[in-house]
Amino acid sequence: METIGIVAVSLDGFITKHQDEGTAFTSEADKQFFRKVLREFDCSIFGAKTFLTSKEGILRHLTPDQLRIVLTRSPERYAAYQQTGLLEFSSRSPEQLLRELAQRQKTRCAVLGGGAVYTLFLATPLLDELWVTLEPRLFGTGKQLITEQGDVRLSLKSVDPLSHDTLLLKYTVLKP
Questions:
Q1: In which element (H, E) is residue 45 found?
Q2: How far apart are CA 95 and CA 91, in angstroms?
Q3: Looking at residue 65, what is its pLDDT?
Q4: Could you give the number of structural domains in the chain?
Q5: For residue 171, how many other CB atoms are within 10 A of its CB?
Q6: Average pLDDT score, the chain
Q7: What mean pLDDT comes out for the span 59-77?
Q8: Half-sphere exposure of residue 144, counting CA atoms within 13 Å on the CB side?
Q9: Does pLDDT of 104 surpass 90?
């Protein structure tokens, strides 16, 4: 299964503006790219905070051709939202989860954050690629892409302008 992390960051490396949750700081070009590219994946994985921040939009756009998995330590807390095959909640390890998704015939999975989820998938490493939208913003504070010390090596695959100011950097994650 192909597993790709997709993230937007400020020039100083933050995935959120200050203590705000979510990606409200991203440009319209990134939002359009994200909506379009997400259709190319048959599953996506993100954390509980990401789910809670974007819950209305996620629930409104559930489709049978894309399974959404929320990683949480407490899946039972979200039982009211569980819709098997559409929106599922799991406390499994990333390795277990990807094995199960492959058994369910999923072939392309987007990992959508937040920082703790990116850290889990990069530390192993389970991501094949990392796609980074670089936004022309400087925040000074916010949440970082990875939440623990690490040394993940990447190889630049491509640089594509999403707009005059916003770039999409696609990296291959180098396996140790």
A1: strand 43-47
A2: 11
A3: 95
A4: 1
A5: 20
A6: 96
A7: 97
A8: 7
A9: yes
